[in-house]
UniProtKB/TrEMBL annotation:
Assembly, per entry: Homodimer.
InterPro entries: ATP_PFK, PFKA, Phosphofructokinase_dom, PKF_sf, PyroP-dep_PFK_TP0108
Organism: Syntrophus aciditrophicus (strain SB)
Protein name in the entry: ATP-dependent 6-phosphofructokinase
Domain of life from the UniProt record: Bacteria
Length: 463
């Protein structure tokens, strides 16, 4: 629901929030040969707008002030912290699968080995479980030969897992294995764990750099322009939509219903709908809708079928959750602590079929859920290029002794961001141009609600 939704990224941030932690002085000349090194002083300027209420002469007056912010630009440093000949690096992949994971692994290994001369690189199997001795997972050696062709495969050669592990035990393992740089590829939950690991490493005064590479196919991380796998997800979603359109047109009163990823944000659904202009209704978490009533989805769907004889509906997995939950519905969580979503796709299938059966209208509905097929494919060309850059910039940061940070794309520039400021929450603005383009492309009504929402509370920060 949009009531009181905070637009933008954070409510209050200061320049201190963007300072990148360093392990110590960089005194070793970098072996990397480049035309220009990137100094720490090179920063990307941002703008932050803070709206404060109750600070004017009356309670309804708002005072706006602008505060400049900047973030550190990524790139090779002239002086590095770790001696490549004595450096040991470890890579772990956590959470759900996503196109491009192998591309990132390959880029990290190739960059460490060929550009910096690091020869001791290991992979931690099955996510953070691989650092816990009781699981008994193997540690694998990573070399240019072993990763040479992995970008041609989907999934992760290191495999993955979900669930919280003991932070102390994980740091014990890193210390025991003499790991100097720990690369964590994962999503929101992984980054929360990575932040806690960094805090424990700092508390113990260990010289271990932790570098995050953000992974979420939903593309819903604040401050990050785009996450890897997103372009591939849109391209693969196009295939499912195309099949649904063919099925819908292949029978009288045909309906193609497609459910795709998007727990809290409809980024993939919106992108796929705009890329494949065969969708007639797009349902996303940011835009609530009713089923029944004169302005609800069922009536709009009925009008569409009567007029055109077929229809394609695209729904994000997090949409319409409030329609299925009651006070008695238990709210379960998965191993990563995420709320388990109810199946909006199957729910809509059953409810749509019931509605038209009661109306005496025969329909032909085909339900398609390609989610796991999309997650497991190899990365597209654009994602592969992006993943290579993320891996390379992550290595530059790690070798320079930076820690507690992740590499991300922001305003078309690769930057260093403290892990603590990057959380999921980026959403489609129902009042913005992107959603307007979806409405124009699909022809769906501006609202599928019987009662208008209250206007959102305009208390936000925009960066």
């Amino acid at each position: 629901m949009r009531h009181g939704r905070i637009n933008g990224f954070m409510k209050k941030v200061q320049q201190e929030d963007y300072i990148i932690q360093n392990l110590g002085e960089c005194a070793i000349q970098s072996p990397v040969i480049v035309n220009d090194f990137t100094p720490d002083s090179k920063r990307l300027l941002l703008k932050q707008y803070l709206d404060y209420s109750n600070t004017g002469k009356n309670k309804d007056e708002k005072v706006k002030r602008e505060i400049p912010l900047s973030v550190e630009v990524a790139g090779p440093r002239e002086k590095i912290f770790f001696d490549p000949s004595k450096t040991k690096a470890a890579i772990v992949t956590c959470g759900g699968l996503c196109p491009g994971i192998n591309d990132v692994i390959r880029a990290i290994v190739m960059q460490l080995y060929h550009r910096y001369g690091v020869r001791n690189i290991i992979g931690i199997k099955y996510g953070f479980q691989g650092l816990i001795p009781s699981y008994g997972h193997e540690i694998v050696e990573l070399t240019p030969e072993s990763v040479e062709n992995i970008h041609r495969e989907g999934g992760s050669i290191l495999s993955s897992s979900r669930g919280q592990q003991n932070i102390g035990e994980m740091v014990d393992a890193l210390s025991r294995m003499n790991v100097n740089i720990f690369f964590c590829i994962g999503g929101d939950g992984t980054m929360r764990a990575a932040e806690r690991i960094t805090e424990e490493i700092t508390r113990r005064k260990l010289s271990i750099s932790l570098i995050g590479i953000p992974k979420t196919i939903d593309n819903d991380l604040n401050f990050v322009q785009k996450t890897f796998g997103f372009d591939t997800a849109i391209a693969e979603s196009e295939n499912a939509i195309s099949c649904a359109h063919v099925e819908a047109k292949g029978a009288p009163m045909g309906i193609g219903l497609v459910k795709i990823m998007g727990r809290l944000s409809g980024q993939i659904a919106v992108g796929a709908a705009l890329a494949q202009n065969d969708v007639n209704f797009v349902l996303i978490p940011e835009v609530p809708f009713d089923l029944e009533g004169e302005n609800g989805l069922f009536k709009a769907l009925e009008k569409r079928l009567i007029r055109r004889k077929h229809c394609v509906i695209l729904v994000a997995e997090g949409a319409g959750q409030e329609l299925m939950r009651t006070n008695n519905t238990p709210q379960e969580t998965d191993a990563s602590g995420n709320i388990r979503l109810l199946d909006i796709g199957y729910f809509l299938k059953v409810r749509i079929e019931d509605y038209f059966k009661k109306a005496g209208i025969q329909i032909n509905l085909k339900y398609i859920d390609p989610s796991y097929m999309i997650r497991s494919v190899r990365a597209s060309a654009s994602d592969s290029i992006y993943c290579s850059a993320l891996g390379q910039y992550a290595v530059h940061a790690g070798m320079a002794g930076k820690t507690g940070m992740l590499v991300g794309l922001l305003k078309d520039e690769y930057v260093h961001l403290p892990i603590r400021v990057v959380t999921s929450g980026k959403q489609i603005d129902p009042e913005g141009n992107l959603w307007m383009r979806v409405l124009e492309s699909t022809g769906q009504p501006p609202s599928l609600l019987n009662k208008p929402l209250d206007p959102p509370v305009e208390e936000h920060v925009v960066i």
